[in-house]
Structure formats: C-alpha cells, structure tokens
Amino acid sequence: MNYTYYGMFLWLPSVLSEKGYSLVHSLGYSLIMTLAQVPGYLTAAWLVEKWGRKRTLVTAMILAGLSALGFGFAQNTAWLIIFGLLLSYFMLAAFAGTYIFTVEQFPTHARATGMGWAAGFGRIGSAIAPFVTGWLLGAQLAYGWIFGIFFAFLLIGFFVVLGLGYETKGYNIG
Predict the structure, then answer these.
(1) CA-to-CA distance for 79 and 7, rounded, in angstroms?
(2) Per the UniProt record, which residue ranges are transmembrane (predicted)?
(3) Which of 54, 58, 96, 131 is most buried, most CB within 10 Å of its CB?
(4) What is the rounded CA–CA span in Å between residue 112 and residue 172?
(5) CA 167 centroid distance within chain
(6) How far apart are CA 144 and CA 124, in angstroms?
(7) Which DSSP string corresponds to the chain?
(8) End-to-end CA distance of the chain, in Å?
(9) What is the pLDDT at residue 148?
(10) Fold of 2-164
(11) Residue 134 CA, distance from chain mean position
(12) Angle, nearest 10°, between helix axes 23-35 and 37-50?
C-alpha cells in the first residue's frame, strides 16, 4: 500500500501535467482527489467496528487496486477525477484498516515491536516508489502499465492479508 500511495500521489500533478493539463488544473485536480482521503479514512474507521477489520481492509485494498487501473486507463478528465477520487478514498480506507488490523495480529506484549517492524517494512516501499515511478515516467512507459504495477502491489497485499491474517474484531489475543 505504501508503494502505491507514495508512488502515485507524489507524482500525481506531474502525471496530470503530462496528460496535457495546466499546472493550475493539475494541482487543483490533485487537491480534489486528495480530499477524498478524509471520508475514506472515516468510513473505514467506522467499518472496522461494524463489519470487521479484515473484511474492511481487503475490500478497500482490492477497490483501491481496481481504481488504480481505472485511473491508469482513463481517457478524459471526468474519468481521471472519478478514478482519482476512488483511488484516494480507498487507499486511505485501506490504511485505516491496516493500522488496527496489523497491530492486532500480535499479542499485547509484542504489539509495539510487531507494528514497528511492519511499519518500517512499509516505509521501504514508501522510499522506493517515488524513484521507481519517476524512472518509469521518464522511460515513457504507458500510464496503464505504471498504474498496473500499483494494482499488482495492492493485489499482492490483498492476498497476503487474505491468506495470513485472521479477523480480530471481538477477539482478545492478550
């Protein structure tokens, strides 16, 4: 998730500019898309208690991945904004689910260490993604391929969470 988030949102104004939008429009559209993060985060914060941590997380991850694909293949302004809003919304929903789900995968006495390692590993993706994305953009790789890579990373995370984690809502692992 960190790879996708930092790979996309740090380069979003440049991607929009390369698609022919002025700097003002690129920054404005980026701001509009980023605003969808707040309701995404709040929705997931509510859903983890009503629907479950794992279900909220995997749903948000797969929908973020599909939104990334839609954004990469969008052919006009309306679809760019729609898929950008969806991607932004579901990425932050996935992050909200991740924070509670990940920490609860560890016994209480090991939660700080476990979460620290998990967050640290995620930061590797955060650090690498802007460089790789910039390199791919400079190599003139089609946007569908670049956003397909974001989709692939989210899909891998989806299957990891689906296969390895267990639902922790209402379960005390002490």
Answers:
(1) 20
(2) 20-44, 56-74, 80-102, 114-137, 143-166
(3) 96
(4) 16
(5) 20
(6) 24
(7) -HHHHHHHHTTHHHHHHHTT--HHHHHHHHHHHHHTHHHHHHHHHHHHHHT-HHHHHHHHHHHHHHHHHHHHH--SHHHHHHHHHHHHHHHHHHHHHHHHHHHTTS-GGGHHHHHHHHHHHHHHHHHHHHHHHHHHHHTT--HHHHHHHHHHHHHHHHHHHHHH----TT----
(8) 28
(9) 94
(10) Growth Hormone; Chain: A; (1.20.1250)
(11) 18
(12) 20
Give the residues of the chain that fall short of pLDDT 50.
none
Query: Residue 117 and residue 122: Cα distance in Å, rounded?
Result: 9
For the stretch 59-68, pLDDT in tens is 999 999 999 9
- CA-wise closest residue to 90 among 58, 122, 50: 58
Token duo for residue 88: 């932004």
CA distance 88 to 32: 10
Q: Could you tell me the residue ranges of all domains in the chain?
A: 2-164
pLDDT in tens, 46-95: 999 999 999 999 999 999 999 999 999 999 999 999 999 999 999 999 99
- The Cα 164–Cα 54 span in angstroms is 11
